[in-house]
């Protein structure tokens, strides 16, 4: 790979990864105007995610942990798969709002999911901690298995929230 290609991959990973990590920091610490874990859990409960703390933890790990892993090129297939899983679920959550971001659509999660898929498939390039530390994971197979597992977890979450949204409300027992 050329110096130009490796430099481009480094820039791409840093911008995308730190952007994702910033979203995770909003969720975990409430930084940058974020909700923090308590309000996030309440929002997840309203959407039907049970147990909500489990889904909150997955979102934080996928975004903050995955984003930092992605940015630094450290255990890259793991970080890329975490980001991919988090963004597939985010795209699903925003799906009802249509495509464009200004209406709360899934445009942005789709871009981040595609970026994580791209790095998961081609690797982080030479300017990465994986290269510096001689971590030689079989990138595509590891990413494929982890991304597949993330999709499976996403599908379970989608089924749980879909079932919760179609359950009829119980009539109140007003006497």
TrEMBL record:
The chain crosses the membrane at residues 54-87, 108-128, 140-160. It is found in: Cell membrane. Keywords: Cell membrane, Membrane, Transmembrane, Transmembrane helix. This is DoxX family protein. It is a multi-pass membrane protein. InterPro entries: DoxX, DoxX-like_oxidoreductase. Coiled coil: none annotated. Pfam families: DoxX. Belongs to the DoxX family.
